[in-house]
Amino acid sequence: MRTSAWITSVAAAATLSLAVAACGSGKSSSGTPTPQSKAGAPSSGGKTGGKLTVLSVGDLQHSDCGQAYYQSDYFFCYATQRPLYSYKPDDGVHMAPDLASAPPQVASDGKTVTIKIRSGVKFSPPVNRAVTSKDVKYAIERMFFNTVQTGYATLYFNDIRGAKANVKPGTTIPGIETPDNHTIVLHLTKPTAGVLAAGALALPGTSAVPKEWAAKFDKKTPTTYGENQVATGPYMIKNNAAGKSIGWQPGKSLDLVRNPNWDKSTDMRPAYLDEILSLQGNDDINVASRRILTGQSMINGDWSPGPSTLKEATAKYKSQLAIVPAASIRYVAMNTTVKPFDNVNVRKAVSAAMDRNALRLARGGRLIGDMATHYLAPGINGFDQAGGVKGPGADFLNTTGEPNLALAAEYMKKAGYPSGKYTGSDPVLMVGSNEGTAGNVAEVVKANFEKLGFKVTLRLVTTPIMYGKYCQSPEAKVAVCPNMAWGKDFADGQTLLDPLYNGNNILKQANNNVSQLNVPALNDAMEKAKLVTDVPQRGSAWADIDKSIVDEAPAVPWLWDRQASIQSSNVKGVISSFNTEWDPSWTSLK
Q1: With contact defined as beta carbons under 8 Å apart, do 589 and 297 qualify?
Q2: pTM, whole model, 2 decimals?
Q3: Which domains, and CATH codes, for the chain?
Q4: pLDDT digits over 100-112, tens only?
Q5: Which of 268, 269, 332, 326 is nearest to 491 (CA)?
Q6: Average pLDDT of the chain?
Q7: What is the sign, positive or negative, of the torsion defined by CA atoms of 162, 163, 164, 170?
């Protein structure tokens, strides 16, 4: 057994890329001035105690960390649970042992991964017992239950021998072995162990789950374990003696308190705070921003400050503002199964006509990101091979973000519309988010579609409903989703392209391939690229796929994110470089 060379080399390459993008001149790769965040390094000597209030717009999408696949859910999960591996706040690339006691060991054939579990980790009340490898085995198995349906289960764990999607609760996976209470062995059907060991094992679904407690909840559709979960991390949802969550009032508040069974000596997190209270319903982000910047003991949650706040904060509250590169992309998704977006030339016309700079201004301007010209993000292996900032050179995705209506008309003519504009009578269904700046972005997208002759029916809903009921549900037949965003699962091109554009990943629910792009040749290329272990060759393989996706134009990429966050003056905030949000387990009060 040995640690795969690919694991360390691909991580090192990604780290180098991120360091170049984030440090040095104080400018982004496109020359845009960016504040250098001082919040990304772990704080030392933080004050123990106190209550931190998080002002949020919406609620969690999933409180069950086995279902979580949304940025705000991760904020919660990495505070309450201990995955096999996680990330120190100043290093979002190299995963560190968390519940595991050492790095994963990968067999030379890439088909076996062995992980050792540390001693001294216990579940919170009412379970109150030590965590074993069997709890991790159940956690991975439940990812595939039809009552849980973890969004990334089939992306990164599907090659475990015997793993099958949408199985009944209680189904076991023969390729997961637990020879003793502190060892778990994953046997794979393909040599894809490097992907697991490079980052997938740090996803929150690997957090231990006690079968004797959770099984009864997992039998319900959907599972109700999230409302009755136990924690392994420093914090837990405030609960009663029966284990029922009483600290969570959906849509109103989420109260995290200390886990009495957490042993600080076993954890890298300092967990200074005594309590973390998330208050939802802060729909006016300008009001919420003012409360945070002029108040005490507060941070922003599931939203970023708007343009006016960013302008004021850079002038008056610089020490309370953090802006960090996110290795993520924002895009307008078009459903390739809904007419007329089943025509590639219509999709290219939309891209050419889209005022992407106006979209960026609606979110906050050049300060919060660079203009995206393709789908791989800066800092990801393959980004430079795909053309870097300039991209592969598609004429319908220029570097300025300015619309080209003449070019759009030419593409519409190629699509069969002689006037250069859409002449259909049926309105296009567009579903966006009403939270934060997202509503403004959606309105700009709507106006751009109308310039091409489209009649648009725009529905604005909360972000969880936008994803769960509409954009991630193929049967909803939503034509356009204007507020889509996607960040790396870990620092590899597969995590940005495979979930979103591989036709093999189209699901009935929790479908991340919102465009429902399904091109057999492209799907095959992705399956082959997953097996490439040489770092430069792997980067080139995913770069070629990126270029092919650009040619298909399933979405309009418009921003490579920089995440902006704000804090009160008495908060010693720490940003997670992995999740690019405040990390409550490292944050303290002054």
Answers
A1: yes
A2: 0.86
A3: 64-227 (3.40.190.10), 325-563 (3.10.105.10)
A4: 999 999 999 999 9
A5: 326
A6: 91
A7: positive
